[in-house]
């Protein structure tokens, strides 16, 4: 049996069985490995060829850590969950954390710190100015990112606020592959316009493309010609591209974007929240990068940029923290003034000394290849378990989350009846799982004069996987609950608002079932 299993594993690795679509021949699960019999057809052979550049990865990547501290979680009864959700006005943001069994609301600030990071808290130097932990963080930032200057901030959006306040004025434009909502809001807050220029494949839920998070370089070129370089104080690239499903951006795309911007003297800033996950995808998928270390790839990425914003709550593996980094001395001086005004002195930026130390260590840990292999493997494992049972998701899975495609999951519910929100409610009722709607509740817009609604193209439910927190068994549980729900999807009905706030609706709206 051992030999048979090894042969199957090697065959799977060779043929990339798990990334191929399911043919009529169907699939069989053998010791955790999915065998897709369709690969033995001529169509399968063609797809094998097409998939050659995508990485080969076994389905199960064991945890590269063992557990030293545990935090109890409890699966409540169905009746308890019904009461919790009703008390929360059917808005998952208001459900008490202790009433949630598996919390996949976000991967931001929810990581488990390592023993080294917890130990770092004890060497926190809480001096107001020039604490030693600032130096540790400086070493990590210059060692990995390589920028000449940096300023710590309490989280990513604080870095964004300072950057745009210092660079963007009313009437300016900031292009990006896709802006995250805090980035967009901070640009708009100073009168600028945030412009998304993703590649076309990035908007198609089932298109398989190795770097679906890329920016459309030709669109960028045309955009600069149309509005004029003088109205673009900077451009950004978000890696990985969160709003487009956590999809990676290639090194070639980063270089091409930089080249176009350089022709016009426009600086490039990277939204680096999930840069380490992006690095791993580059190492796995981009020609010529397989033999490079994660650190070498990171250095290459940031050598193309003039600065970055960072929410260390993601790939800094901390519960709070961030920074703004840049090469331009004048910008550094301006940003320092704003930091002192809004966050704190330039050596702590709104954080305690102990937070700076934990962040410094977390930044290095996030580049550990064994950690990244497991991390990306977890997301991929959950995605494959769902695809295997025909559950519609955004494909291929990205770096930090699996996105359910609510329009295909619940085709009988029109967007006006909020299918994503209904799915979120039922995931909680069914299994105590907390996910987040990224669809009509978050993005639909109402024309105030006609009262007409415009709905977003994608109606998604994000299952974000916190880093180093949940085990394989937890993910199996999540997959089982979703598959069970999928089998009885016809019984799920839509939702409507009972309270609809004017701004950032998803956080505070209330609902009821139709
Ligand atoms: C998230 F519902 N992301 O994905 P901060 N850039 C990028 C992010 O993903 C990001 C930030 C900047 C979150 C948290 C979140 O309405 C929401 O440290 C690509 O959170 O300030 C954050 O970093 C901002 C979720 C934020 C939301 C705002 O879950």
In round numbers, the mean pLDDT is 90
Task: Count the beta strands.
Answer: 18
Main structural class = alpha/beta
| Number of DSSP helical runs | 19
Give the bound compounds. ligand P61
C-alpha end-to-end distance: 53 Å
| Spatial strand arrangement across the major sheet | 4-10-9-8-7
Could you say which overall geometry the principal axes of the C-alpha atoms support? globular
Helix content: 40-55%
From the structure provided, what is the oligomeric state, counting identical versus distinct chains? single chain
Radius of gyration (CA) equals 23 Å
- Low-confidence parts lasting 5 or more residues at pLDDT below 50? 1-6, 8-39, 42-58
- What fraction of residues sit in β-strands? 5-15%
Major pleated sheet: 5 strands, mixed
Could you provide a short overview of the structure?
The protein is of the alpha/beta class.
């Amino acid at each position: 049996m051992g030999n048979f299993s090894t042969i199957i594993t090697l065959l799977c690795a060779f043929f990339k069985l798990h990334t191929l679509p399911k043919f009529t021949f169907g699939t069989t699960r053998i010791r955790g490995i999915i065998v897709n019999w369709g690969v033995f057809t001529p169509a399968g052979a063609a797809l094998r060829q097409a998939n050659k550049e995508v990485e080969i990865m076994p389905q199960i990547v064991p945890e590269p850590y063992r557990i030293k501290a545990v935090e109890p979680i409890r699966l409540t009864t169905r009746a308890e969950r019904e009461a919790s959700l009703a008390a929360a006005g059917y808005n998952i943001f208001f459900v008490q954390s202790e009433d949630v069994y598996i919390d996949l609301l976000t991967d931001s600030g929810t990581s488990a710190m390592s023993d080294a990071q917890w130990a770092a808290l004890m060497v926190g130097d809480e001096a107001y100015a020039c604490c030693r932990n600032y130096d540790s963080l400086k070493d990590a930032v210059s060692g990995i990112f390589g920028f000449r200057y940096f300023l710590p901030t309490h989280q990513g959006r604080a870095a964004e606020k300072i950057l745009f306040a210092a660079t963007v004025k009313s009437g300016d434009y900031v292009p990006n592959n896709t802006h995250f909502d805090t980035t967009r809001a901070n640009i708009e807050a100073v009168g600028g316009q945030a412009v998304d220029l993703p590649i076309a494949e990035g908007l198609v839920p089932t298109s398989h493309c190795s770097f679906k998070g890329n920016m459309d370089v030709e669109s960028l070129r045309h955009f600069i010609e149309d509005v004029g370089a003088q109205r673009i104080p900077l451009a950004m690239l978000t890696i990985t591209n969160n709003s487009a499903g956590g999809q990676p951006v290639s090194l070639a795309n980063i270089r091409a974007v930089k080249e176009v911007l350089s022709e016009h003297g426009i600086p490039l800033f990277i939204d680096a929240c999930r840069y380490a996950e992006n690095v791993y995808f580059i190492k796995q998928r981009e020609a010529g990068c397989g033999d490079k270390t994660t650190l070498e790839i990171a250095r290459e990425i940031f050598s193309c940029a003039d600065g970055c914003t960072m929410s260390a709550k993601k790939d800094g593996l901390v519960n709070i923290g961030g920074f703004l980094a840049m090469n331009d001395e004048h910008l550094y001086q301006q940003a320092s003034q704003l930091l002192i005004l809004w966050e704190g002195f330039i050596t702590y930026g709104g954080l305690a000394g102990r937070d700076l130390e934990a962040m410094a260590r977390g930044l290095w840990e996030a580049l550990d290849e064994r950690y990244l292999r497991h991390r990306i493997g977890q997301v991929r494992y959950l995605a494959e378990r769902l695809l295997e049972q025909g559950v519609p998701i955004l494909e291929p899975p990205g770096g930090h989350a699996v996105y359910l495609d609510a329009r295909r999951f619940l085709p009988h519910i029109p967007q006006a009846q909020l299918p994503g929100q209904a799915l979120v409610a039922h995931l909680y009722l069914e299994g105590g799982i907390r996910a987040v709607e990224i669809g009509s509740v978050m993005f639909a817009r109402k024309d105030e004069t006609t009262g007409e609604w415009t709905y977003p193209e994608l109606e998604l439910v994000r299952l974000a996987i916190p880093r180093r927190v949940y085990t394989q068994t937890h993910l199996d549980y999540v997959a089982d609950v979703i598959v069970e729900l999928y089998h009885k999807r016809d019984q799920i009905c839509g939702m409507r608002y009972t309270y609809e706030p004017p701004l950032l609706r998803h956080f505070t709206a209330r609902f009821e079932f139709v």
